[in-house]
Structure formats: C-alpha cells, structure tokens
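Person: At home tonight, work slowly through the protein below, taking as long as you need, and write a paragraph about the fold.
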Amino acid sequence: MAISSLRDLVLGPPLPTARMGHERLDNLRALAALSPDALASIAYANQEIYLGLVVAGAAGLAYSGTIVLAIAGLLIILGISYSQTISAYPTGGGSYTVARQNLGTTVGLVAAAALLTDYILNVAVSVTAGVEAAASALPALWNYRTELSLVLLVIITIANLRGIREAGAVMTVPVYLFVGTYLFMIAVGIARIVLGEPAGSFVQAAPAPTAEYAALTIVPLALVLRTFAAGCTALTGVEAMSNGVPVFRPPESKHANQTMFLMVALMAILFVGTSGLTQYFAVIPASEETILSALTHRIFLGWPGIVYYIIQASTLLVLMVAANTSFMDFPRVASILARDGFMPRQLAQVGDRLVFSNGILTLSGLAAVLIIVFLGDTHLLIPLFAIGAFLAFTLSQAGMVRHWVRERGQGWLLKAGVNGVGTLATATALTIITASKVPEGAWIVVLLIPGLVLVFRAINRHYLSVREQLTLYEGLPPDLKPLPEPRVVLPISGVHRGIIRAVRYASAISKHVTAVYIEIEPGSAEQVRQRWDEWGLEGEADLVVVPSPYRSIIEPFVEFLDQTDHEANDGQLATVLLPEFVTAHWWEQILHNQTAWLIKLTLLYRRRSSGRVRAIIDVPMYLREEAHPHPHPHLHPASK
C-alpha cells in the first residue's frame, strides 16, 4: 500500500483507458514536446559551422552563408518529405514504417536500429550538454557533471512517466522562452541593419588560418563538405513529428502536418537568422565562448546585461529539455517494433498513465549507462551523434521514392523527385559524417546498428517459434491428449498448518500423493514421522524420507522425482505441489529461506528431452500481520 501511494504521488494515479483520447496533445503542447531536439540543435550547428570554417580564416568563414542556405534548403526538403510521410502513414513509425513497407523488412530494421540509437544518444548528449552549460556558469559543479546529468535524467523520466500532457506542459516554458528570446534577438539585429549599422569584415576580425590552410588561395571543397555535414546536426529531430503522430488530437495527420510546418519554419528562421546576423556583423567569439553567445553580445551591445543572461538561460533550458523528443519517440518506435515481433512485447503495453512506460524506462536506463560510461562528457559523446539520424533520413527518403513510384498517384513524379533529391543530399551528408567521425569513436555506432538488427531478428525468430508451438490449426498434438490421474509429489519441511492444507488439497485431486522430506540433519525425520502420524496424514499421503548427506535440498528432491517417474513409467511426469507461505509485508519475506521458489525455478527451466511436461502447483498460505504467540486449542491433534 505504501509503495502504491508513493508511486501515485510521484507519477500520478492510474488513468482509465477511456481517457486515452483526452491525453492527446494540442498543436502548441505537441510542438513543445516534439520539437526541443530540432530547435535546440541550432545552438551547436552554428558552432560546428564556425569551428569547421575558421581553420581557413576569413576565406573559410565567407562560405558560411552558402552552407547555411544549403542546410536550410535540405531542411525544407525534409519538411515536405515528412509531411507526405505523415499523410501516408498516420499511425506513426517514421523511417521504420516507410522503409519496411517499401524497401523490405531488413532495411526497415536498419532504419529502426538507426533511429533508436540516435534517440538514446540524443538523450545523453542533450542532458550532458545542459549540465555542462550550467557548470560553465557555476564552475563548482564541473566535477559533478555525471551525477547532475543523472539527476536531470531522472526528472525528465518522471515527467514523461506522468503522461504526455504533463510532459508537454513541462516542456512548454523552456521551448517558447527559447523561441521568443531568439526571435526577439533576430528582430533587434534586423532593426540595427535597417537603421544603417554597417556590416563587419571577417578579413579584419577573423583569426589567421592554420598552417594547413595558410598557403592555399582556394578553400578546399573537402573542408566545405565536411563543414556542411557538421552543420547538418541542425536537422536532427526533424523526423519527430512523423513518429509522434498518434499523440496529436484528431484529426491526427492534419494537426501533425500543421505542427511540422510550424517547426520547420521556426527552425529555418532561427538558423538562417542567427547565421545571417553572424555573417553580416562578422562575429568572432572569444576562446571560451560560443558563437551564439558572441552574437548575443554583439546584437545587444549597450543594452542591460540582464538581456544577455536571459537569452543564455533560454539556450541552457532548451538544451536541457531537448532530450524530451527522444522520450516521446523512442517508446513509440519501440512499441511498433514490439507489435511487429521484433522487440519484447512489454514495450507495446501502455502503462498506468497511458504512456509506454516500459519504453520510457528502457530509454532512460540506456542513456544512464552512456552518461556513466562517458563520464558525463558531451565532447566524448558528440562523435557518436547524428549518424543514426542521417541513416534513418536516407532510408526514409528512399522508401518514399519507392512508395510514389509504386502508387503512381497524382503528382507522383514531382513527389518522387523531391524525395530523390532528399535521398541524395542526406546520403552524401551521411557518407561525409561517417567518414569523418569513425576515427573519433563513431565506429561504435557503425557496429551497433547491424548488431541491433541481429537482435531484432533473434527476437522475431523466438516469437515465431512460440507461435508455431502454440498453434491449434494442426490439431491437438500428442502431449495434449487426455492424461491419466496425476501423481502428486510435494516437498515438506515439517508438519504445520500450511503442510496439512497442501496435503489435503493434493489428496482431493489425486489418489497417488507422496510427501517428501529431505533429511539434512540425521535423525530429524523421526519427529516429522511422529507428527505425521499424530495428525492422521498417513491415510492421505505416503511420507518418504530422502537423506541428504551434503545438506542440499534441491538436488536430492529433483533426483527423487526422476527416479519415481522412471519407476512409474506411466507416460507422465509427477505433478509437484509446493506449499509456501506469504508474509504480510514484502520485507518479511527476506527473513525466510526461498526453498519453494528455488524448487519452482529449477523445475520450470529444466528441459526434458522426452517432450513430457511437469505441472507445478503453488498452494499459498497467507500469514496474518500480527502473530499470536500463545497456543490455540484447535492446533492440537486432540482437537481435530
């Protein structure tokens, strides 16, 4: 009762299934719940573009505008593509569903493995990045990044376990604060330009190129492509809407598309706006400053310092909640895989709060492992990031091309062309990202994705095998034909009320009942025989004493079962009846040995080559909360 009350306090009381429709999200809450990853990615995408080009000095930074526009174009292509995916696949699933139905099961599983891997990494990266941002402002926290990351992870997990409406509400403030402050900053920057503030010059502001590029007169294409691929981290999270369609209020596809276009529009405005202002004012950050921080300083030059700190706080908060996108989508993709038989069935079950609780806990646990293994260091996690997202993008785009070619509906050629361009663009980015990040540790992801596919296949084979063995279409198998009266064997530890109840239950279902006492201490069986006779049990069951010279209970009992089955030779295995008592409180159970449980575990997972089965029956006796130490008259044999 106490545990149940604590759970209700932390997670909220269970919700009836009838509330499922009421737990859907409106567009504003859905945008807050599903877009943090996509919106927050501009914070580090701008930084990656700057760091990628600054090595070539002013000449390199001159390409930032071109790269930003190319990424924005790819963003629009992805937005249109996933809008079509939402309409064609309203049940969600995104890349997995599209790839499996159009390119085959194996390709679909590769897409699913890529998605799930990216979701796990996104949680770890977002949480650790948020904590590092806080630790940068408060250096005393720096040595506790791992612990703080885990605490933040627990908070986000609890918010999602409470239900999607409450998770959406929790994320609303950070997301809209971030959007509002950055739109305000872009508006102020544009106003400065309109009012005549002159443009800056990278030639004067940018640091000198590194030795590798100092002698070059033309920026190498490889550098531009590598920077483009790094900047494409701004596109992570775009697929969230297509995976999360079922969380929207009806009509789901319509509302998901509206929210998708709103998210893409905001991403494009924030990304192009901040990058454009950085380019116009030739912003160069200090050695320990991000590019967006430097831009904020430049835009609000002469303003009160509080404005700068509000914008930085909004960046910190949106990074901290960016992990929520994964908490919305990982459980849903996992539930689809589970329904298809490629992940454990438990992941398809909706919990007390009408969310996929098992999927949420699985994601949280795996992310916690990454945070602990990589010591809460974002820099160590970043090389593993984005490969899964772009692999999923590519397979989804290719699947949509196949979908339009096969359907050949109105405008199919144009739609296939759009998705074809998207496939080429994302595949190119994926190739560059993989080639550049494998030496930095991304080989882990490259090996993990096919490894997950093998696991999915193994799980599916197991479920298919179980289904085949349980089917009734081929008639009753021989082991389901009528059986003779069972032989019942029950282990006893002595003679008490629970044993008597078990013996009488056994004698009610069979005339062939044997009680087995394993004698660990020589001579102890004599008292058991005496009490057995006193209570008149000799007429209900035969008592057999099995000596155990090595003080073991399980092995002698199992050997006795095998021996009696062999001697009986009646085509069946003896039924084992286990008398056990259940304490009033869970903690009291640890004060007693678990012999019955160990016997059951041993017999349950003990394979029999004969194909015959051994039934196991539990006969529980529930103990009262308070025992009475004084004797009761009805417990004496004379009062029977």
Observations:
- Confidence is low (pLDDT under 50) at residues 16-22.
- The CA atoms of residues 383 and 438 lie 8 Å apart.
- The chain has two domains: 11-463, 483-639.
- DSSP finds 26 helices and five strands in the chain.
